[in-house]
Write a structure and sequence with these properties.
two-stranded antiparallel ribbon, mainly alpha, single chain
């Protein structure tokens, strides 16, 4: 028996259990915010360490499945960790920890006496547990449970502070999410009615033997539910109105991470159940539309948060492009691009939080002169912005090249159209972020149409926006050290994907090879597989 066979069953459930235990403890100590913060950071650090260990063991020894409580498949809960899920766990744990540090720095600077931290921190940990559950789930039911935990926690985080704008955005978000959950349940019913199981590995075998109409109809319904979660066009209209209203740390986590849970579900199910690319053309068309519509929406925005929300939608299209190709090269590009985009998009939203503190607004009509006022802030924006736009040699460029090569290798007309669409989208992304740079950082504030207006104080969890003349602002909104350091760490992590592009792409290729060969996953879960 190897070390991983001894260790993995003991630790594979910890990314779910540790944050739930931390959430319970933070509720118990709700009146002691400093102790709450320490418990929260300790739990998230533990999840990060466990995720790193899982990644090492799985990359060395291969996919591993654990039956919780010893119940056999499909009666018990199956948790599966392979290279894809371990990689997603590690990146998400890293991002969740740094964003939590960013939020702690904000509270230390502004004081948390009047902030709803007693609710914020436990809910944040529950969200972490939901993300981990979705990545580890080995069956449709527990994937649904992970999504619902996410939904409940994200609704609370989205409406924290209970302002009219946030409540309105939260209601829209929860209505769309509930619709997605209902569609998910209908899909589960159709799939179960066709195959008699919800276990991913058994479904890979039984869907292959089921009538093609029934299996494709059931999966098409699930694909709609996953498409809403991932914000794939035309199911993405809810996102730009929901995310920008939340506090900066919440928006950063939502933008960087939550849509990738939907992308993960599409990668997992599509590669395992339909490795021959049955839904490839549909995904390619949706990927192209997501890229183009998203970036055109970004160009029209004057609010930086809304602009970045549209670029978020646009770049989901790159990932769908790689998944739709259904080749090892395409999946390699998609896996690498998911990790790149989580880090870069989260970093950009954290920078926007710093801009709001520094300038008193994130509207391009009101701000300017930030490069002179804070050169550090300029660097923190410029690096991930160029990375997002795909400027060489950043990881955004490497990920896009990997996807373009995969499209060229496919050689179909539709794949070449996606290649052209990807290049155009990348150029338009550069235009969008260059516009932010020229107006917010380069242009003097006096030349901004509404440059005389600013928020009276830095924004916190409880939004209390009062606008005053810039000259009357008493608090210049200095950037707290912990907020800057956590942002620097995320920007550096994005650069590390460039420096370590070879090993990272190698890992993504191994993960893609596992995904492209469903027997790896099936054998790990079922042992001796059922006959096809």
């Amino acid at each position: 028996m190897t070390l991983s066979q001894d260790l993995l069953p003991a630790i594979v459930a910890l990314p779910v259990l540790v944050p739930l235990l931390g959430a319970a403890l933070t509720l118990v100590f709700g009146r002691r915010p400093r102790l709450q913060a320490m418990i929260s950071l300790s739990a998230l650090t533990t999840v990060l360490v466990i995720s790193g260990l899982l990644l090492y063991l799985v990359d060395r020894d291969g996919t591993t499945a654990v039956q919780v409580g010893g119940w056999p498949t499909p009666i018990g809960i199956t948790l599966v960790v392979d290279r894809l899920s371990a990689g997603m766990l590690l990146v998400s744990a890293f991002v969740l920890l740094l964003v939590s540090i960013y939020g702690a720095g904000q509270n230390i600077s502004d004081g948390d006496e009047n902030q709803p931290t007693s609710i914020y921190r436990p809910t944040y940990l529950v969200l972490t547990a939901g993300v981990s559950m979705a990545f580890l789930a080995g069956d449709l039911f527990n994937l649904f449970v992970g999504f619902e935990i996410l939904l409940a926690a994200s609704f609370v985080l989205l409406t924290v502070g209970a302002t009219e704008e946030r409540i309105r955005a939260g209601i829209a978000y929860v209505m769309v999410s509930m619709l997605s959950s209902m569609i998910f349940l209908i899909g589960i019913g159709l799939i179960y009615g066709t195959t008699g199981t919800l276990n991913f590995a058994q479904l890979a075998l039984r869907l292959d033997a089921a009538p093609s109409g029934a299996s494709t109809a059931g999966y098409a319904v699930l694909l709609v539910a996953f498409g809403i979660k991932a914000a794939v066009f035309p199911l993405s209209s809810w996102l730009p109105d929901s995310y920008p209203t939340a506090p900066a740390p919440v928006t950063a986590v939502f933008a960087g991470l939550l849509t990738k849970v939907g992308v993960y579900a599409i990668i997992r199910t599509n590669s395992l159940w339909f490795p021959d690319g049955t839904f490839g053309n549909i995904l390619l068309v949706c990927g192209l539309a997501t890229m183009v519509v998203g970036i055109l929406g970004a160009i029209a925005q004057t609010d930086i948060r809304r602009l970045l929300s549209f670029t978020l939608i646009s770049h989901i299209g790159y990932m769908i492009f790689g998944i739709g190709l259904a080749t090892v090269a395409g999946l390699t590009g998609a896996v690498y691009y998911v990790a790149h985009h989580i880090l870069v998009q989260t970093a950009l939203f954290l920078v926007v939080g710093l801009i709001e503190r520094q300038a008193g607004s994130v509207s391009l009509r009101r701000i300017g002169g930030l490069a002179a006022a804070s050169p550090l802030l300029g660097v923190l924006f410029l690096v991930p912005a160029l990375n997002l736009g795909g400027i060489p040699p950043f990881s955004g460029f490497i990920g896009k090249v990997a996807l373009l090569e995969a499209g060229a290798e496919d050689g179909s007309v539709l794949a070449w159209v996606l290649v052209a669409g990807s290049v155009i989208t990348s150029l338009l992304t550069l235009y969008a972020v260059a516009r932010v740079w020229s107006k917010a950082f380069w242009r003097p504030r006096a030349e901004a149409p509404e440059g005389h207006l600013t928020a009276a104080k830095p924004p916190t969890l409880v939004e209390d926006s009062t606008y005053v003349h810039y000259e009357d602002r008493t608090d210049p909104g200095r950037m707290p050290a912990l907020m800057v350091l956590s942002t620097v760490a995320l920007v550096t992590a994005g650069l590390a994907l460039t420096v370590l592009a070879g090993p990272t792409l190698g890992f993504a290729e191994r993960a893609a090879a596992d995904l492209h060969d469903p027997t790896v996953y099936i054998d790990a879960v079922l042992g001796t597989p059922e006959p096809r």
